[in-house]
Design a protein that fits this description.
By secondary structure, this protein is of the alpha+beta class. The chain is built from 15 helices and 16 strands. The chain has a seven-stranded mixed beta sheet, sandwiched between helices. Strands 10, 11, 12, 13, 14, 15 and 16 form a seven-stranded mixed beta sheet that branches. It has a two-stranded antiparallel ribbon with strand order 1-2.
Length: 485
Amino acid sequence: MDTIANRFVRFVLERWRAIAAAVVLQADALGGAAKRRGVEQAREVVTLLDEFLTAPLFRQVARLSVFPGDNQVLRRREGYRQLYAAWALVEGTVGLALDLDDPLLVSRKSIATLYEYWTFVKLASAVATACGDREITAELFRPSSTGMSLVLKAGAATRLKFKADVAGEKVLVDLFFNKEFRKTSWTRPMRPDASLLVHTPGGEEVWLHFDAKYRVDWSTPFVTGDVDEEEESERSSGTSKRTDLLKMHAYRDAIRDSAGSYVLFPGSTPAEFTFGKDEFLPGLGAFPLRPHASGDDTAVLVDFVTRAIEHVAASGTRRRRATYWAARAYAEDGTNRPAAGSPVGELPPADTGVLLGYVRSDAQWEWISRVGLYNLRSGNRRGAIGRGERELDGPLLLLYSPQDDGFRFALFERTGDWESATGEALAHLGYPDPRGDHYLLARVQRLPAPVWLDEVAVEQLLPTDWLPGRPYSTTWLDVVLSTQD
C-alpha cells in the first residue's frame, strides 16, 4: 500500500484540497453569482477530498518526500496516469488570472484557454532551452492585483527576447504571445497564439507561428488524400484536425516573411509537411503537447526550435535563395506584355542576358549576316572586352547600327563559345578592315524579329558613361521595357 505512486496520489489530493480551501477564502473578490458559485463548488470539493483522504487506504500511506518524476507507474498505469496528467495541467495553470467570463464556470472554452496559456509557457521554455537555458518565469508572469494569483501578460506587450549562438554568430530570437499582424498581413489581420521571430546576422527576419488547439481527431490516419476520407477518418486517431492545419496555411500564406505555422494539440500523432526532405522550412505541421507527457513533447519542441534557428541563420539553404530572388523580383520592374517572353531558353526575361552590340558600317552588318559570326575587341584597346566579363554570358545579341532615321536592329542567338582570334584571321574570313590584333569571336544565328523590335530605345539601355562602340550587357526584360512609354 505505502508505495511511491500512492504517496503521490495522497500528495495530489492534499494539494487540491489546499487550493479549494484557498478559493473559499479568496472568493469575496469575485462578487455576485461567481462568488456564490465559487464558494459552493469549492466547499463541495473540500468535502469530497476530505472523504477520500480519510479512507483506510491513506491511513497506511506516508507523505511524499521525493518527487517521483520518473515513476513508471504514474506514467503508464491506468488511473495513475490520468491523475498525473490532471495534476500537471492544474499545476501549470493554478494561480493564473485568466481572461475568462467566469473563472469558476468550467466549460470547453475555459479549458481551451487554459491549454493555450499552458502551451505558451511550454513553448517559451523550449525556446529558452534552445537559446541557452535561462529562467523565464519572471518574464512570463507578474503578481495580480489581489496578491493571490499571477497574470500572464496578454497581447502584443508580451515579448520575450533571446539570443542564440549559431557557429559563432549571434542570432536574435523574439517570442510573442497573441501578436496581431495587421499591416504585415496580405488580407485580414491575423493573431496566432504564439509567434517566433528569428533575426539573421544578415538582416533577414523570419516568422514561425504556433496555435494551441484543445481538440483531437481520434481517427485512422488517411492514406489516399481524399478530402471525404480524411474528414471521415478524423473521428477515430490522435491527430490534429484538418481545419486547424488549414488555419496554419492562412497564417503562413497571409503574414509576410512567414516560413512555417504549426498546431500545438493534446493528441499523440505529429504531422509535418515540407517542400523537401532535407529542408523543413517552409513548412506546416502539428506537434503533440500533452500535460501527462509534457517532458517528452517539450523536448521535441526544443529540437525543432533549435533546428529552425540554425536553418534560418544558414545562408546556403534553398529557402534563403528563394526568398532572396523573390524579394529582388518584386523590387524590380516587370511587364504584362504578352510578347515579352525570351525567344531562347527557359529563363524569365529579367534573367535572360542580352549583349547590345554596335555595328559600325553596312559592310560589317552584311558580313555578320552572311557568315554568322560576331566579333568583339579584346586586348588593351579602348572599349575592349576581356574574358570572364558578364557581357560574354548572355545567349542573345541585339545588334544595332545607325541609319538616317535612327537605328536598324537585328536579333541573334549565340550558338558557340567565345574564342580568341587575330586581326589576320578575321581578314581571312572576309571581315572588312580589322583595326586591331586581338578579338573574341562567336558563332551566331539570326532569329525572327519581334514586331516591336524597331521601337527599342537604345539610349535607355546604355549607361551614361558608355564608351561609344563598346558592347554592353542588358536583359531581355530591359529591352522590352525600353519600347514601352
